[in-house]
Amino acid sequence: MNTQPAHEDLRIGISAWAADRGGVERVAEAALSVGIDTFWLGDGLLERPDFPPWSGGMESFGELAWLAGRYPGASVALGAAVLPLRDTQWVAKSAATLDQLTEGRFTLVLAPGNWPDEFAALGRDFEDRSQG
Questions:
Q1: Helices (H), the chain
Q2: Contact between residue 114 and residue 84 where contact means Cβ atoms under 8 Å apart
Q3: Are the C-beta atoms of residues 105 and 75 closer than 8 Å to each other?
Q4: Rounded distance, CA 23 to CA 16, Å?
Q5: Which residues contact 126 (CB under 8 A, 6 or more apart)?
Q6: What's CA 29's distance to the chain center, in Å?
Q7: 3-class DSSP state for residue 14?
Q8: Per-domain boundaries in the chain
Q9: How far apart are CA 103 and CA 123, in angstroms?
Q10: C-alpha to C-alpha distance for 126 and 29, rounded to whole angstroms
């Protein structure tokens, strides 16, 4: 029987989004100071007004690698890699590389995509995004 409280297994992460690099650093440092040690990013193809560069608009694997290097010991996670918009072999290699570089402190979550304009930009059918 496990006698440890369940809350010890609970981990909380944060999206370290901000208007610029300094803002991301301030968010990350504030999170770390209160014990939040996982940084999550989303994924998207196009820059959007609601996701400017330092708020999720850059290439996610690259920004997560920067965060992991800037804050050793922190975990990083890609919360919604839009697989139908990416080369699956490149996603697998990038994820495996980031997992190795962070010594297992990387989490990858896959998603079918949410924005039709991103599919249109690549000439793909948004309605068929979940098909092979």
A1: 21-33, 60-70, 88-101, 116-121
A2: no
A3: yes
A4: 8
A5: 113, 116, 119, 120
A6: 18
A7: strand
A8: 6-128
A9: 37
A10: 38
Helix 60-70 with 88-101: angle, nearest 10 deg? 0
Q: What is the token pair recorded at 119?
A: 């599919």
Write down the pTM of the prediction.
Answer: 0.82
Fold of 6-128: TIM Barrel (3.20.20)
Per-residue pLDDT, averaged over 20-37, amounts to 94
Q: Which two tokens stand for residue 121?
A: 């930009």
Interacting residues of 31 by C-beta distance below 8 A, sequence separation 6+: 14, 16, 37, 39
CA pair distance 25, 18, nearest whole angstrom: 9
Residue 12, pLDDT > 80, answer: yes
Q: Which two tokens stand for residue 78?
A: 């890609």
In one-letter notation, the amino acid at residue 47 is E
Reading the block at residue 131, the tokens are 């098909």
